[in-house]
Amino acid sequence: MKDIGFHKELTTGCYLNPFDGFEPKDMPIEERYDETTGIASRILPYRVHPARKPDTDAYVEKSPESICPFCPELFEKLTPKFTSDIVEGGQFKKGSAFLFPNAFPYDAANSVAILSSRHFIPLDQLTADTMRDGFAVCRDYFFRIAELQKGYQYCSINWNYMPPAGGGLIHPHLQTIVSKKPTNFMRRLLASAQNYMAASGGGNLWRNILVMEQEAKERFIVSTGTISWLAAFSPKGMAGEVDFYFKEKTSFFDLTEANFDEMLLGLSRIFLYLYINNYMGKIVPRFELNPLGTSDINYFEKLHDEIICPIAPEQLCKELRTYFIS
């Protein structure tokens, strides 16, 4: 099997520790780089957890139902609608979920899907049943856009859960992007897969990553059937990253109802882990650093394009495995 391109190097810093009589203290730092994603990260020897659970009541108080455009009282007045050639009535509906155009789009076909009329749903209550309609209405939208044959080739479902993760509204909602061009990250993944295939005489990058990780048993969390869940080798977030791969599926349109159910059940277990471990949370948990509410993104990420991660992916993997034991 051709080398996947996971690189790591250990470096050590030293300082005189004021908490130990100014005795010398070594601080090992592991530098990692993933050729597949182009992500560089630094795994630190100390672990940072928020001191307490984020105060969700404060967010609800600042953004009450009375001013929420996704709640029933204002929904029909303030949410945009599609033109009739896309869908009659202007919105897609599935069970308790609605999907409609983003009023502040990032792309020509950028939509928002609310899970239900419920204004706030804590992480530990994001069960498979709670999320099912929201993801299903996104799927219906993708199928409709494909039917229209407007040249769109790339799609994604994205979620900023709560303000620490970039959510502008606390009402649970997904965002979809459908585009004629891949995002930079999509482009990188596609190029990596194509380059790997060419260099290895037809090898499948994603299949070989799964084989390698499952054999190593360091970051492979679990296989739930069609889906394999992994802690990323070089994570994109300070609290680590969880990736999931659909085996033998080449497109979103290949996914069955059973595949969706499996994915949603896995997501609910990861959300429960994040809730218990005080995180507001490809799955990249985001959080504020107490007591000042400091952002988990600083100059190292923004200016130097390297991720600081005080949680080793291997440790994250061990902790998450217990949540998949039925």
What does this molecule look like?
This protein is of the alpha+beta class. It has a domain at 56-179: HIT-like (HIT family, subunit A), CATH 3.30.428. The protein is 30% helix and 22% strand. The chain contains 8 helices and 12 strands. Helix 3 (128-148) packs across helix 6 (257-276).
Give a quick set of tags describing it.
326 residues; alpha+beta; HIT family, subunit A; 5-stranded antiparallel sheet; 4-stranded mixed sheet; 8 helices; 30% helix
Poorly predicted regions: none
Q: What is the CATH fold-level name of the domain at 56-179?
A: HIT family, subunit A
Radius of gyration (Å): 21 Å
**CATH architecture descriptor name of the domain at 56-179:** 2-Layer Sandwich
Q: Quick one: how many beta strands?
A: 12
List the helices and strands and how they pair.
Layout: E1 6-17, E2 23-34, E3 39-43, H1 56-62, H2 72-78, E4 92-94, E5 97-101, E6 109-114, H3 128-148, E7 154-158, E8 173-179, H4 184-199, H5 205-216, E9 220-223, E10 227-231, E11 242-246, H6 257-276, H7 299-304, E12 306-309, H8 313-321
Parallel strand pairs: 3-12
Antiparallel strand pairs: 1-2, 2-3, 4-5, 5-6, 6-8, 7-8, 9-10, 10-11
Helix pairs in contact: 3-6
Q: Can you summarize this structure?
A:
The protein has 326 residues and is an alpha+beta fold.
